[in-house]
Amino acid sequence: MSKVVSIHPYFKVHSGKMEEFRKLLDQFVEATANESDCLWYDFTMSGDVVHCREAYNGAKGLMAHAENVGSIIEKALDISDLLRLEIHATKEDIEKLKEPFADLSPEYYEFQLGLGKP
């Protein structure tokens, strides 16, 4: 069974704020670089929508990340709208994450099966 927890936020950057938002991406990456439970962390873009592809070892890893980048997230949400937030995890990890992420209204996807590779 996969213990990976992935989170998928989509930010629609406010008009005229893309340069400022892109500077925040550097801050996000720098802050995340030393997180031991981060499996991957990168950004993609489509027009004015920025997506962060990120995954962690379990709910504990995601919670540590959220605490680590909380102030940067606040800055990002001042100049963008959170269009969508997905969290993909085991049922057990979803239960651990529901309360801490309730304010962001994520859509949860429960792990079913897959092929994990080291």
Written account of the structure:
With 118 residues, the chain is of the alpha+beta class. It has one domain (4-110): Alpha-Beta Plaits (2-Layer Sandwich), CATH 3.30.70.100. Helices cover 37% and strands 36% of the residues. It has helices at 18-32, 58-78, 91-98, and strands at 4-13, 38-46, 49-57, 80-89, 107-110. The longest helix is centred in the middle third of the chain and has 21 residues, at 58-78. It is globular. 21% of the residues are buried.
The CATH topology is: Alpha-Beta Plaits
Task: Let me know the largest β-sheet.
Answer: 5 strands, mixed
Envelope shape: globular
SS elements, strand count: 5
Strand content is 35-45%
List keywords for this structure.
globular, alpha+beta, Alpha-Beta Plaits, 118 residues, 3 helices
Any chance you could write out the topology, listing elements then pairs?
Blueprint: E1 4-13, H1 18-32, E2 38-46, E3 49-57, H2 58-78, E4 80-89, H3 91-98, E5 107-110
Parallel strand pairs: 4-5
Antiparallel strand pairs: 1-3, 1-4, 2-3
Helix pairs in contact: 1-2
Describe what is shown at a glance.
By secondary structure, the chain is α+β, with helices and mostly antiparallel strands.
